[in-house]
Amino acid sequence: MPLLPRRDGRRVFRGAALTGSPAGGVGAGLRTPHRPRTVGTSGDFCPVFFCRSGRTASSFHAIIDPATYENSTVFSREITRRIRSSKECLPLIEMDSVTKAYRNGVVALRDVTLSIKAGEFVYLTGPSGAGKSTWLKLVYREERPTKGTIKVGGFDLTKLKARQVPELRRSVGVVFQDYRLIDRLTVAENIAFALEVLELPEREIRRRVAELLDLVGLEAHARRFPRELSGGEQQRVAIARALAPKPKLLIADEPTGNLDEETAASIVRLLMEINAFGTTVVMATHDRALIERFPRRTIRLEGGRVAYDRPARQVREAVGR
Question: Tens digits of per-residue pLDDT, 198-211?
Answer without folding.
Answer: 889 999 999 999 99
